[in-house]
Amino acid sequence: MVRSPSATLFVARHDSELIAATQADTEVTVLLDAYVHRWDDDGDRRKGTGWMQQVRVIVGKGVGNLPVITAPARIADGRIAIGQVVHRNLVRMPIQSEGAVSVWIQLATGEIVEISGQSIRSESIGEGRQVEELPADLWPGTV
Predict the structure, then answer these.
(1) 115-137 pLDDT, tens per residue?
(2) Is the Cβ–Cβ distance between 79 and 87 less than 8 Å?
(3) pTM of the predicted model, to two decimals?
(4) Is the preceding omega at residue 94 within 30 degrees of 0, hence cis?
(5) Is 133 among the domain residues?
């Protein structure tokens, strides 16, 4: 897994793929093969690595437009709004929030996935796969 108590994790929409988007009862679940930035604080500097990791995002009391897709589907654009805060490219992981939320994902095919709800949470699934080292200038700060 990519998780570490001393690491700061972010999911980036670029290089991520949508595996599935489903609705069951009052939850909408989005399964991603996500590109994850992992930043370890190494005292006087941060060390960044890029990973591929399956991530499940669950929107509680969710409703949405969930087109039938051929998975995996490359994500071209997207955003997650949690209350008044909009995350356009990176969102800190794990996500855990109560209150108004919306998720908007545009696939490379042009299809749109839109979900709104009253809570959001995320969880990593299985082992991550390290892809690359990240240059220090990509550190997103307090996104």
Answers:
(1) 999 999 999 999 999 999 988 88
(2) yes
(3) 0.88
(4) yes
(5) yes
Alpha-carbon distance of 135 to 27, in angstroms, equals: 37
Which pair of structure tokens corresponds to residue 63?
């409703």
Residue 105 lies in a domain: yes
Q: What's the number of domains the chain is made of?
A: 1
Task: Give domain status of residue 50, yes or no.
Answer: yes
Tell me the pLDDT tens digit for each residue of 22-73.
Answer: 999 899 999 999 999 888 877 777 788 999 999 999 999 999 999 998 999 9
143 assigned to some structural domain: no
Residue type, 52: M
Q: Which of 64, 67, 71, 59 is nearest to 32 (CA)?
A: 71
Measured CA to CA in angstroms, residue 81 lies from 84, 117, 120, 123, 134 at distances of 7, 11, 10, 18, 26
CA atoms within 13 A on the CB side of 95: 27
Q: Which of 16, 24, 1, 5 is nearest to 91 (CA)?
A: 16
What would the two tokens of residue 136 be? 């220090």
Domain hosting residue 74, numbered range: 7-137
Measured between alpha carbons, how far is residue 80 from residues 47, 126, 127, 137 in Å? 26, 23, 24, 24
Give yes or no for a contact between 89 and 13, defined as CB atoms under 8 angstroms apart: yes
